[in-house]
Write a structure and sequence with these properties.
Protein name (chain A): Replication factor C subunit 5
Oligomer: heterodimer
Helix content of chain A: 40-55%
Number of helices of chain B: 18
CATH class of the largest domain in chain A: Alpha Beta
Family (chain A): Belongs to the activator 1 small subunits family.
Largest sheet of chain A: 7 strands, mixed
GO molecular function (chain A): DNA binding; DNA clamp loader activity; hydrolase activity
Structural class of chain A: alpha/beta
CATH architecture of the largest domain in chain A: 3-Layer(aba) Sandwich
Keywords (chain A): DNA replication, Hydrolase, Nucleus
Strand order of the largest sheet of chain A: 2-3-4-5-6-1-7
Order of helices and strands of chain B: HHHHEHEHHEHEHEHHHHHHHHH
Structural class of chain B: alpha/beta
CATH topology of the largest domain in chain A: Rossmann fold
Number of strands of chain A: 7
Largest interface: A-B, 63 and 69 residues
Strand order of the largest sheet of chain B: 2-3-4-1-5
InterPro entries (chain A): AAA+_ATPase, DNA_pol3_clamp-load_cplx_C, DNA_Rep/Repair_Clamp_Loader, P-loop_NTPase
Helix content of chain B: 55-70%
Number of domains of chain A: 3
């Protein structure tokens, strides 16, 4: 049994429910025969991937849906062997170069050149070029991005790139100036409600408008998350009503507890207690950035108005540290300690004005 | 499968193949990005780098070339200039054997410099035929173009040093980079440097309008200005924007248009490249959104400020606006705001610099923007209280 997210994923441009003008534009690009390199960006769960798959289908017809997974081995200059998975159809390739970490440059250079130097084999193909979809393009190293620059120009008759990214901040300017930027905004809450209503109908679940609205609000305009929550609610409760509580994910519940502990007690003993929980989260593969961000936003409603800006400030500060550093737990704990200190100082001032 | 053994069918397929091949060049020119299509063919076509061009043209006459180092921001014509120069020197035949172009997409570690570059550098020259020599200058040296040289490692650069000198009789090097500081000193001192400045508005505008006319794209009043403004002196960006917008609005006609067809008979469908569509392509945030953020940052009682700023920022992030764009536009809005005191601006620029650093390091956009907005708002409050 597939999840709702996959089961009801739109397969063609017609089935996409929101951003109709964007879909229309993608369609006209696909039909014009003059398809540019694309850089698609937007928050997660906004439907970037779905749109791209639909566009590919528009470009090549149903053949793109027959995909297979190839495992390839690349060799770096220092003779290290890298194993790398490629999702491919006859017409397109899909790669996630950040899988191989720092060696992504080798993969990008070898693979793209290989693709670019061979022409489309299938004579009946609708397009002369192949498409390479690069996932998580914002995690490409600078070297790999630099390697893309000239390749994009030189081999443009045989090769089109579609880069998918969450933000354009980490994409170097030369790449940005060579691609057509496509922004996919997150759906609005009412649009999410629509989608929930529709997939509920397909499943034969009764329509609960208030519940859908609450889910849309909780999801933070992330459609994938909204659908997962929607499914979770229906899976856990026999009879769903408008007032059925939405179960938060376990990790979020745990972070809420941490936030409450930080608020309640500002002592070294409490830091120890929190440490256990943070380790628990980290070992369950919750990204440290997500932990820090969620923790900060859970703390905001708990603290005094005058401290809110400080909390955000320190969250941003330690978030950067997490990016640059290697030991995540240090920075998470530093954040906790810092917040406790701020709270303590604030309390002192309140006691002795 | 059966057709494989059928000779007739195979012959038919073969002729098919050749005929499609004959069609190919035409098609590829149409599908070419305009940036490639309108790359300057000779030195005179290079826009707006007068100083460099005059110097190069002189050297062309004397047919002696120094090692060269071209530097300047992206999209100012560095690669175009050197390619045009090579074309003028060698003509279409000889250019293949006399010019080696390496860029960051090729492997360029120290081993390549030692082998490939060195081998090419020490290769002796062949004498072109007299007829060919009459047509092109064909100077007695080869050119090695190292594009994007600032992404070469220090080691690879230092391996070049001696190579450059030893073979200087028969080989000239041309290094191209964005940041001259990334080129190690010993290399830089061996080259004559040419700085490529950002294109000025008039020249860039003329070029963009020129291309638009040749491609049969109609531009709305002010659209070309908008193109130039958003591309910030980067002509390649401007041309890419132009092509993308033209594709989007469908302002370019589908059939292949010869370059000599007069611009007068353009299709008058009323499909034009508008300022708005240019904005959309360039990913510029509408002024209204920025204005809303600025309004939310104005000093009020603390709690309300947080609520309002958080709301606006959340919407911005969900709409997928790129954080760097937010920072750039907000910066312009605040720094040129008359109401903000100079001393406040002083502090605020510091905040911007910090935020930019965080973004480059790959921090979470939501947190960075929220932090930036809140701290600017705090700064504004402080100033008003004093």
């Amino acid at each position: 049994m597939a999840l709702l997210v996959d089961k009801h994923r739109p397969r063609s441009l017609d089935q996409l429910t929101y951003h109709t003008d964007l879909s229309e534009r993608l369609r006209s690009l696909a039909q014009s025969g003059d398809f540019p390199h694309l850089l698609v960006y937007g928050p997660s769960g906004a439907g970037k991937k779905t749109r791209i798959v639909a566009t590919l289908k528009e470009l090549y017809g149903p053949g793109v849906e027959k995909i297979k997974i190839d495992s390839r081995i690349f060799q770096t200059t220092s003779n290290r062997k890298l194993e790398f998975n490629i999702v491919a159809s006859v017409y397109h390739l899909e790669i996630t170069p950040s899988d191989v970490g720092n060696f992504d440059r080798v993969v990008v250079q070898d693979l793209l050149k290989e693709v670019a130097q061979t022409q489309q084999v299938d004579q009946s193909a609708r397009q002369k070029f192949k498409v390479v979809v690069i996932n998580e393009a914002d995690h490409l190293t600078r070297d790999a991005q630099a390697a893309l620059r000239r390749t994009m120009e030189k081999y443009s008759p045989n090769l089109r790139l579609i880069l998918l990214a969450n933000s354009t901040a980490n994409i170097i300017a030369p790449i940005r100036s060579r691609t057509l930027l496509v922004r996919v905004a997150a759906p609005t809450e009412s649009e999410i409600c629509d989608v929930l209503g529709k997939s509920g109908k397909k499943e034969g679940w009764p329509l609960m408008e208030r519940l859908n609205e609450r889910i849309a609000k909780e999801s933070g305009r992330n459609l994938r998350r909204a659908l997962l929550m929607f499914e979770a609610v229906h899976a856990q409760n026999e009879r769903v009503t408008d007032s059925t509580p939405i179960p938060p994910p376990d990790w979020e519940a745990l972070i809420t507890i941490v936030a409450n502990e930080i608020k309640a007690e500002h002592t070294p003993a409490c830091i120890l207690k929190v440490r256990a929980k943070l380790y628990d989260l980290l070992t369950h593969c919750i990204p440290p950035t997500t932990i820090l961000k969620t923790l900060a936003f859970k703390l905001i409603p708990l603290v005094d108005d005058s401290l809110k800006a400080d909390v955000i400030n320190w969250a941003a500060f330690f978030e950067q540290r997490i990016r640059n550093g290697t030991k995540h737990i240090f920075h998470l704990e530093a954040f906790v300690a810092k917040i406790m200190r701020i709270l303590e100082e604030h309390d002192m001032e309140a006691d002795f004005p | 499968m059966a057709s494989f053994f059928d000779i007739k069918a195979r012959k038919a397929a073969a002729t098919n193949g050749t005929s499609s091949k004959a069609l190919l060049p035409k098609e590829t020119t149409r599908l070419q990005p305009w940036v490639e299509k309108y790359r300057p063919k000779n030195l005179r076509d290079v826009t707006a780098q007068d100083h460099t061009i005059t110097v190069l043209q002189r050297t062309l006459q004397s047919s002696n070339l120094p090692h060269m180092l071209f530097y300047g921001p992206p999209g100012t014509g560095k690669t175009s200039t050197v390619l045009a120069l090579a074309k003028e020197l060698y003509g279409p035949e000889l250019i293949k054997s006399r010019v080696l172009e390496l860029n960051a997409s090729d492997e360029r570690g120290i081993s390549i410099v030692r082998e490939k570059v060195k081998d090419f550098a020490r290769m002796q020259l062949s004498q072109p035929s007299a007829a060919y020599r009459a047509q092109w200058p064909c100077p007695p040296y080869k050119i090695i173009i190292l594009d994007e040289a600032d992404s070469m490692t220090q080691d690879a650069q230092s391996a070049l040093r001696r190579t450059m000198e030893t073979y200087s009789k028969i080989t000239r090097f041309c290094l191209i980079c964005n940041y001259v500081t990334r080129i190690i000193d010993p290399l830089a001192s061996r080259c004559s440097k040419f700085r490529f400045k950002s294109l000025d508005q008039d020249n860039a505008k003329r070029r963009v309008e020129d291309i638009a006319r040749k491609e049969g794209v109609s531009l709305e009043e002010g659209a070309s200005d908008a193109l130039i403004r958003f591309s910030e002196g980067d002509l390649r960006k401007a041309i890419t924007f132009l092509q993308s917008t033209a594709r989007l609005v469908g302002a370019v006609s589908v059939e292949d248009r010869g370059e000599d067809i007069d611009a007068d008979q353009m299709d008058v469908d009323g499909k034009m490249v508008t300022v708005k569509s240019v904005e959309e392509i360039a990913g510029v945030i509408p002024d209204g959104t920025i204005e809303e953020l600025v309004k939310a940052m104005q000093p009020q009682s603390k709690g309300i400020v947080y609520e309002r700023v958080a709301k606006v920022v959340e919407d911005m992030v969900a709409d997928g606006w790129s954080a760097t764009q937010v920072v750039t536009q907000l910066y312009r809005r605040i720094i040129f705001d008359e109401v903000v005191l100079d001393i406040q601006k002083n502090e605020i620029t510091l905040l911007f610099s910090e935020a930019d650093k965080k973004l480059v390091d790959g921090s979470d956009e939501h947190l960075v923007i929220l932090d930036l907005a809140l701290r600017i708002s705090g700064e504004l409050c402080k100033g008003n209280g004093a």
